[in-house]
Structure formats: C-alpha cells, structure tokens
Amino acid sequence: MARNFPEWRLRLLMVFAAVIVCVLFCRIIQIQIIRHKSYKEIALNQWMVEVKWSARRGNIFDRNGYPLAVSYRSYDIGITPGSFPDTDEAVKYLSDILGREKGSIRRALKRKEKYVLQAKNVNLTAEEVTKLSSLSGVRLDSYPERLNPLSSISPGLIGTIDRDGKGMGGIESAFQEDLHGIDGWILKNKDAMDNTFKFVNAPAMPPVDGNDIYLAIDSRIQSIVDFELEQGVIRYGAAGGIALIVDPCNGDVIALSEKKGKKGKTGSDEYNSGKLFSTSCIYEPGSTFKLITGAFLLESKMVEPYNVFYGEKGTADFDFGRFKDDHPAEWMTYKESFVHSSNICTIKAVKDAEKRNFYSFLLRAGFGSRTSIDLPAESKGKLREPSLWSGRSLASIAIGQEIGVTPIQMVMAYSALANGGMLLVPRIALQMKDSHNKEIKRFPVIEVRRVFSPGTVETLTDFCTDVIKEGTGVNAAVDGIEVAGKTGTAQKSDGYRYSEDKYVASFIGFAPAGDPRLVCLVLLDEPERSYHYGGTSSAIIFRKIIEGINLSTDIFVDGKYSDFAIGYKKGKKTKAPSFLRLTSAEAEQLARDNDVRISYSNGQGEVFSQVPGPGTLIVDDEEIILSFCSGISDGSSTVTVPDLRGLSIRKARRMLLERGLKSRIEGSGTIRSQNPGAGRSLKAGSVVKLNCGPFNNYQDGLAMDRRVK
Amino acid sequence: MTRKSKYDLTLFCVTLILVALGLIMVFSASNVIGREKFKSSFFFMQNHLIRIAIGLCCLFIFTRIPVWIYKKLSTMLLIAGIILLAALFVFGKNFRGCVRWLHIFWFVFQPVEIAKFTLIIFIASQIAEKKKKITDLKEGFLPIIGVVLLTALLVGLQPNLSNAILIILLSFVLLFIGGCRLIHLLSLGGALVAGAVPVLFSFPHVRERVAVFLNGGGDIQGSGYHINQSLIAIGSGFVFGSGPGNGHQKYHFLPDPHTDFIYSIIGEELGLIGTITVLIFFFVILQRAVRIAKRSQNEFGYMLAIGIGVMIFSTALINISMTLGLVPVAGLPLPFVSYGGTSLVISMSAIGILLNISANGKEPAAARKRTGTERRYKVYARPIIQERRA
Fold first, then answer.
1. Which residues of A touch B297 (CB under 8 A)?
2. Closest to A511 in 3D by CA, of A461, A463, A552, A474
3. Which chain B residues are within 8 Å of A116, Cβ to Cβ?
4. What is the pLDDT of residues A94-120, one digit of tens each?
5. How many structural domains compose chain B?
6. Which domains does chain A have, with CATH numbers?
7. What are phi and psi for residue B217, nearest 5 degrees?
8. Does the complex come out with an ipTM higher than 0.95?
9. How confident is the model over A246-276, as pLDDT tens digits?
10. Residues A624, A612: contact at Cβ < 8 Å?
11. Does B128 touch chain A (CB under 8 A)?
12. Helix, strand or coil for residue A605?
C-alpha cells in the first residue's frame, strides 16, 4: 500500500530510540558494574547496623554470698501493630508475660500507630527475652540497672554505675574490668525509620559476662556497724563518722561504714557523697598514734614499761614549745602514761630519739604509703621527710599531730599488733567467680613485713587492755569479752592553727584481747563539745558494736576462740575433734582418746552441735560443749518451741538446736519475734523463723520479765 | 500458508512477561509498606492482580473491536478525554499537592492516561484523514496542534508537568512521522521551549528537581533523596541482584518503591540481568509496534500503531532515565510493571489494539514467498522497498 509518510523519518525515530537505549544501557553498566562497590557500601551503611550486645555485669556478694550489688535488666516492651503476627498463640504469649487480658492486646494491635508501648520496667527471664525478641513486631528496650539490697551500706564502698554501665567509685570502679565483662556485638538490619530487626544467621560475637566478686564484708556485722555508727553520729552530734572492722589474722575488711551527721555541719555533706573516707581522708590521729610511738620506743629499747616520768602537772615547757595534758598528773610509769594518755610523758620518752629512726619506723608501720587495698583513690597520708621537720615535729608526731593518716592505715597498724606483729595488706575482695559460678581467682592474704616483735606485741596488748580497765577507754569495756584499745582525741587544724572547738574523736580496739578476732576503729568527726573525747563517744560506739556482734554472731565463740578465753597466755593448742553424730558414750571415749575436756547437758541421742567446732584450735584446758538431740534424725518426735524473744541470736540458736529445731534468722541484734510462737509443738528438724532487731533495753527487759514470770 | 497465528505473539508474550514481572516486583516492593499501612503484605499485590485481570480482559476485548471504529469515534473519544481532564478540576481529589485521580463510583483512575490515549487516536485519525494536507499549516498542522496544546495545558494545570511534556513530545513524534513539515515542527518547538521554560521554572518543585538533577544528586537528605536512594538501590544490585524479595531499599529508604521507582527495586533485586532485560523488552515493544505499523492496511492503523508504541516506549524511557538519574524526577510509571491501575489497563488495552492491527495487517509479499526459516530482521524492511519499486 502506498503511503504518503516519509520512510526516513520512521527510520530516524528507530535510530534515535536505539541510541537512547544504548545511552541507558551504558548508564546501567556504569551504575551497576563500575560503581557497584561504592553504592553497595553506601547501601550497607544504610541498612546494616552493629548493635552492642552488652555483657551482664557481675554481681557483688558479701563473704557469705549475701548480695550487695546485683545487676538486672529491665525492659520496655512495645509492639509494632503492623508487623505483629496476629495469631492466637502470639497474643496469648504476650498477654501471659504482660499479665494483661488478650482483649487489650488485640485492641492495641488494631491501633494505627507505628509503635505502641505495652509495659515499662518489666523484669524478664532469659527465655522470655529470647522468645519475645524472636516475635516480629515486638520491640524490647533494655536498661542496665543495679540493685543494692543492703541499703544501709555506705554508697562509697560499693559505688554506683553510670548510664553506660561503667562503675563509679568503690568496688564497682576498682573491679570495673572484671565486673563488666566483654561486650559483644550483633549485626542487625534496620529500616529508614531506624527500626532494627534481626535477620536469620546474623553474624554476632556473644559477650563474655562479667565476674562475680565476693567481698570480705560480712553483711550481718556490716549492718550492726551501720546501725550503731548512725545512732552514735546522731547521739553525739557529729558531722560524720567512720567505723572500720578488720580481721587482724588475714586483713579482711569485715565491715566498713561511713555515716553523715544529721545537722548541716560543714563537711557533713561530704559523707555519703560517694567518696570513700576510710581510704581517702587524711586526719591527725591524736593519742591513738601513741601506740605506734610506744612500739617504736619499746622496739628500740628506749623505754621500759616501768620507767618513771614526771607529768609536770599537766603543762610542760620544752625547748621546742609548750605541751599540755588533759589529765594533769605528776609521777607515773610509762605504762600509766600510756593508759592515761599523757602527752608530756610520751614526749619526754621520745624526745631523745633519732628523727631518722623514728621516721623509718613509721614508714615500716605503713604510714606515708598506700596500703594497696583494692579500692580507688586511696590516699598515702601525710608524713614529711625528717629534713623538713621543725624542732617541734618529733614531739608532735609522737602524740599524733603533724602527721596525716588514713583510717585504713591506722586499722592495719593496730591489726599488726593484734595478729602478733605482721603488717598485712587489707583485703576487700575474697574471691572472683565467673558467670558459671566457677572460681577463677582467690585473693591471697598478703603479708607486707613484720613490724612489731612478739615482746612488743605482748607489752602493748597489756597496755591497751589496761586502757579499757582503768584508763581513758573504760567506756569501751564489753561484758563477757575482754577488749583492748586506745582512745584518741585530736583537735582539727584549719591549716594555720588548731581549732578550739573542732575535734576528731576516735577509738581503735580489738576483741577479744587475748586472741583478737576483730580490730575496730570508730572515728567521729566534730562531735559536740561534751563528747569530744574519744573515750566519751567513740569508745561507747565501739562497745555497742562489739556487743551487737557478740549478740548476733558466733564470731567470738566458735571460730578459734572461746568467748571466755580471757588472758593472752598462749598454751599448747590442739585441734578439736569432731563429735558430731556420736552418742554420749562414743563422745566420752573420743574425748579421752584426744585428751580434751567435754561437757554436755542432756546426754541422750546423737551430738548435733559442738562449740568450738570441729577442726578449730583449742587451748589444752578448754572445754568443748556438746549438745545432744534424740529425735533429729528420724524427724518423728515433736518438741515445744521455747520463748526466744529478747534473747541474743546466739542463745536462741543454741536453745533451738538443743531441742532439735533449726533456725532461720532475719536481721541482727536480739530476737524481736518468732514464728511459730512459743509453746507451739513442732516436729524435730522444723525451722523456726526469728526476726531480730537492734538491742533495746526497754523491750528486751520486758521480754526478760515475761520469761521470768 | 502455515503461519502460526495472525496476532503478533512476540508482542503478546513480551507484554505478559512484563506484567508477570510487575506482579512479582510489586509484591516484593510493597509488602513492607502493605504490612505497615494495611496490615497485609499482600494488600498491593492483591489489588494489582485485580487490575491485571481487568487489563487482560480489556486486552482481549480490544483485539476484537475493529480498528476503523476508533477512527470514526476519534473526535468523540478526544472530547470525552478532555471532559474527564476538565472534570478533575471539579471532582478531583487533592493528593500530595496534585489533582490527578478521579473517583467515579468505585473506580479511581487517572484521566490523564485516558486523555493521552484518546489524543493519540485523534492525531492518528487526523493524519490518516488529511493525508497530504498535513503539510499545510492552516488546514493540517495548526488544528491538531491546537488540540494537543489544549490537552497539555489541562494536564499541566493539575499540575502534572511530566505528562504534559510527554503529551507534547508524543504529538510531535506522531506529526513528525505523519509527514508534517519540519519547519512547522521546529518553529513551534522553538517557540514552545522559549515560552514554556520560564513558565515551567515558575513552579518551585520543578526548579528544585532540575537543580537536583543538575547538581548530580544534590542534597541527599532533602530533594535529592529520591534519586540518590534509587541509584544506591540499582548500584547495589550488581549482575544478579540480591534476589527477588531480598532487597533492602523498600524498607522506607526508597520512596514509592512499588510505583514510580519499581525499576530501582528491579535493579536491586534482579541486578543487571533484570534492568537490561526490561529495557530491551520495551525496545522490543517499540520495534514490534513499528513492524505492525508497516504491515497495517491503512494509514490510521499505521499511525495508531506507531503512536501506541512510542507512548509505551517513551513513558518507560522517561521512567527508567529518572531512576538512573538522567532526567529530573517525574511522576511517570513504568508501563505494565508499576503498581497503578489506569496506566496498566490503558497500556494493556493499547497492546490489545496493537494486536488487533497486527492481526488485520497484510502479510509482506516477500515473506509470503519465502519459507518460514528466513531470518526475521530482514522481513520488515522488504515490503516497503518493493512498494517503492512499484
């Protein structure tokens, strides 16, 4: 068919079209092949994201496994209604976890929003987290949180964690790397709205969870110390207070408490602020330092306990200045001057000493250097070189002035005295366990050096015992336990001169005096004027702490020592054999074989408890007390629950044990209530729950009366 | 003679493959948006399937309607198309700042697609009718151009500038092929460019898109975002792509992944193989249309076939160029593939008409004599040479 359309135009159109197709073809090659790598990289950056997979932070426990800081994650659960599987199973699962009705979840699913928050701060198990994150359309936002179950403990000791989970202060900071573990990562996809979602077989590096740390702290003793110190700080109107308890045998820090005073005194706000005073604050120790001076004098044989000095009736003018005593005296022996804390006699004894010798002895005793405790920001204290000393310095240092010490340094020096002369590194952590509860590190007892010879130890222990019996520390005496210690009262210095009304009142003592189990320092910062002597405030707190410990725990009883082992005669020691599960006849036979003395009250059935416990060292004339129970093994006989209210925990436990009952104790101090109540019949082997509280004269007195009636 | 079918099966198959590919890619690209907006991954796919069914029905119906009917009805069809366009200004619903969709009962459609198609029918019939007179300025050229400009103006006022430009381009190509004088076309073209460019640039979004285009992507967080994401999608595909359904750009990185930017998703998920295949398929459609035109019995069939071929090819070309960052962002779909009812149904109807023309076309004389083993590409050139000789 003939047409009037010019043919060349159609051909031109086709050529033109072909050229454009070729241009597009080249462009496609350029984009998809030549620039592929750079575009792919941009694309990956857009939709791949490396998400941190946080390691679980390790927990902190006390020496008995009581939790002091526990990690947990709380979750915010939200859903994306568009992508949540609308199946009965998924909705039911979510409703079970959230504890909400299915209807309300279905209503939320019908909403048109992109994200509907379902619950905040939910605690989930690992299984629930896995299941929930596998459901599409569920978004879990988790936050690390730290719970400190023992609320009374000083925040400076445990520390806190910041938003990134990093430890701030205290143990959290000192063991940051161990506690934190190693974070992992996981690659996730994300959309342009920044919603991330996991894809199948995503590359990931699982985290290594942090290690658990077991501290030397004993939470029961810690809570007694916290309570008594707080009461004391309030009672004596102090700006703040510090109490430290250390086991002298191994340097374990059993309790560490710091309390802020109630009143808005200057400096009181610094307590509880997260700063750890026990290791970082520097104070002038005052008379408690005379023990170190005494040790130096005895070690260098410059003085004998019965050397006599003239007390100058309370005021003495030396070449290098005037010194005063609070208790004016005339002639006294060196021992009496120690017991009554005479500055003048101490200075007279020490004034001829070589400065360099005294200085090096102080260095040996651990002053002027850190104790190496595993806590952050420890201070070295302040001990100047002898070349920088003035004429007055030797005398001042000898009575605990012109020297800055930290509470932990003082306690460790006294511990050296209590353990027979060995200076130890204070041990705050006992062991470390990994997330599978396998022990990976045990912190050793580290001996630094021998500081005191046995003779000096014996003499000074005798001095310290007399301080409690007749000296400045009479208020620290505890019924039933012989304690030893030294009071200290130091004027605070404002940089130029000593203040007239600001004092640091301290007391350091150990109990039992014979074979010390605990060394305890109590320090009050700026107590009110009438309580500014260490002997009138700190010593009383010390007494209450030791009393509380004695009432609530068996630490002075079972362990190595009996609570009546007064005196420091070290007889021949033997290991106590185990009498457990023996009949009375067998026990007597065993006692004869091992040449130990035993005593028991109700000789029927099997031995179920012995004091001291099996394997502990006993002095040869010490008696082992056995308790028998007839029905404990078969669990069939019934016993009557005694009235335990008002008794000490130790006594109550013993009474229950004698009847074949077990006890579960909550709190510390004396028994406040019991469950089941007195008079109820129980099967042998049942548990009696005991609620304890601090000793209260009035209530406990009432309870005693009731029992007597 | 034992010819397989009177319809152009290649064209039919290519169309069906593109439609099927479209169905798969619409599902892949839309499931994320569907799930979030309509709580069903299959929402868009189901809708698309319905439109494909309607499109297929139309395709088969149009293969049965004799072509001369369109010629007779061309003026009425054009008027209907223009009325629909005008109706937009009264009944249209505003969406993203434009009035493009008309709602009649349950039907929602874009009148511009219909108007474009009726205009092509009109121009084809006019050229076929006027024959030699088309070279005449007053009788041939101006009346057609007047109608074209009116349609383009109505479309441009929606505003839908890309379609307005496409309409003018399409008309020019048809007039060019139809034998208009070049001097008429060039002078009008020059005048239009001189007059229209300042008008076009008075639209802020045009200015922005052109600026983005000239800056080679421009601000990738702002106005250059579409093109940049499209390039990232295509570029990350490499030779084989990430596989159907495995793309990531549809997770809200690439806007409109199932409509205007479906070619980017094809590039990401099917790679070079997918992009080149689609491009070639559209060229094949043009080529088949030209072939059908040449075999058509009359001038109207000739012009209509070319018009349809150019319409589908140019729309696809502009869409692909846009996703490749070669032209500024324009709201044109990829025929057969993009999600969008009117475009799909009209395109498939147009293919129906093309098939109809092919069925009624004559057999080339040379081909009739030869055996079926001859090579195809030689076939379409021969009859014309023979006709000339005659």
1. 1
2. A461
3. none
4. 888 877 888 888 888 888 777 888 888
5. 1
6. 50-215 (3.90.1310.10), 219-552 (3.40.710.10), 573-708 (3.30.10.20)
7. 110, -45
8. no
9. 999 999 999 999 888 765 555 656 665 667 8
10. yes
11. no
12. coil
